[in-house]
Amino acid sequence: MQNAWEYHCSDEEYKDLQGKPFKLGFLWHQKLGYRMTPGDEVEDMFILLNEVKRQIPSVTAVSSGAIASDYQRLRVESVCSRLGLVSLAYLWKQDQSLLLQEMMTNGIVAITVKVAAMGLDPRKHLGKDIGFLKSYLHKLKELYGINVCGEGGEYETLTLDCPLFLNCRIVLDGFKIVMHSSEAVAPVGILHPLAFHLENKAESCSSSGIDKTSEICKEKVGFVFEVQGDCLRRPEATCQSAAEVTKLDEVAERRLHISRTKNHNTFSICCWLQDSCETSAGLHEDLEAVLRKIELKLVGYGFGWENVVYIHLYIADMNKFSIVNETYVRYITQEKCPFGVPSRSTIELPLLQVGFGSAYIEVLVANDQSKRVLHVQSISCWAPSCIGPYSQATLYKEILHMAGQLGLDPPTMTLCSGGATAELEKALENSEAVATCFNCSISTSALLFVVYCSTYVPSSERHRIQDKQDTFLKQMRLFQLDKGSIVKVPDPIFLYVLVPDLPKRALVEIKPILYVPEDADVTTGTVQELSCVRMPSYWGFQHAHWHDSCFQKCVVHGKIFAVILCITSEDVLKICSESLGGDQDNRDYQNSFHEEQMERVSRFCIYLLDKLYMQNNFSWDDTQNLRFYFPTSLGVPVEALSLMLTNAFNELAEMGQRVKIGEEPIFNLVPVLGAGRSATSMDDIITCELFAQKA
Fold it and tell me: pLDDT tens digits for 637-663?
């Protein structure tokens, strides 16, 4: 239960740190994103809420009426974040026409006290009831595109009556109009009340809807508090600074490993610990070491956390999620990321089973700060909030990187009931709500979907996950086409990954990547492969028709190249048979693997990826990320697998010089329980996810 409150405080009660009185703050910080600014009006709100929290410790949240104004929402969220309060914004992104009607239906009587928009005349429209102006406001919306709820500052109101006013309503007896601007197009005027009185409410029944609301308000009247007292400006408690610097010699002892792609525009850095289960110091310590190492790497490249677009956070135990967040927020903060904190997905992986440490992080880094971030911390009916330091989505260079989406009910932030398919449908709906903010749709703009499936989903139900996703996206695409939307990407590609656990014990989590071109009318069309280019035949591999069944690809001509490469046990048999003259038995390659066979498979993966790069006129230098997912049941040590891929890249560089080799590998290995191109066949021997973009 949230407590309502009001505060009575006069100007002279405000004092600075030297005890000198001052008046209420002004609008000093005028940028969209707010940062703490002494003397700004937002700091007045901080002082008031800080006093409320001190006097009524049970207050844990603040509710605001933000509908579409990021300017307002971000300021409320900033104050709430500093005070450890939850921001509630249940009107966020709601249809304003429906909201206006709902306010009228529930007996809210409000008059205009300021107008500042085309079509609104102070002399005609000030002091008028919103219900009286409703039809006129809708007319102005059609003519000039105004916000019918005044969300763009078109008008301000004073509430004279509503269900919260249990005994009396306000009656305005006199007022005057003050003109601030007499421009012919959009004059600005303000109504100043001069006299009013309270009028007892009649006992007669009104509409049933209003009666019901009033009864609810009467039940909650005991939760209304009045906060009074001195309100001095107190110095804000300083947040804990960045984590204590981990000693480099200790980091070296922990055997930190780094990988990095070579794209000059956007590249990924991966860091993990090569530890055994016995030597891992624990999740907090491992995450601290990995975050610190990445921070040092960023600084070494001349960057910081503000350049990070996306973070993949892999942990060994989801039960320690709260510990992870506590450590995470010591590095990635709003102060360090003034242009917006990066988006994030958090997944539990079988790290310890393969000899990794308890934490594993991959960051996608941009070489400039032109990213556009959507970070809504308020709980609303729109989409799940991101109360922590991560964003719903980040748009950079026409690629929308969306945070991992769970099947959460936005207003309650709880997982929806109904099992895996219900969670998936809700996660897709949430993803669509986020995509809409960037004027796109997951059904027409998605390049790639990664679907994480928890082991808590019975294998007998996994086929329903894929069926639900296919049905949802087809229906959504038809809906978008009916609206006149343009299909930006004809056919997205899919990767399904089986993992031990997900946040909130969710059954599924989806991670879409979308193409959002700067020119809204751009379509991708069909890309023709460069058949005239002479294809390589490294390591004795020759083109075979069955190679085409190993991969899915999505190409935006001259811009983006995404590939999912799946090698099954049947494919391994073909690969090894080709190399050894077909003299191979039909052993079970899923459970019995030799390093010699895996070395051949590794070379085949690099060969096929290189071939696809050449056919589609891309190069290894365009690579943003390159992940190899391998199951814990593979039976090949991770060190051996890493060495095989490294040797394959070295050999490729020597043979064709199409890939540049540095001290750090350009790929990262991700241990999973299973992966594949469908929810029913997550049993690949190895799966590759590649994403490339031309600078």
Answer: 999 999 999 999 999 888 876 787 778
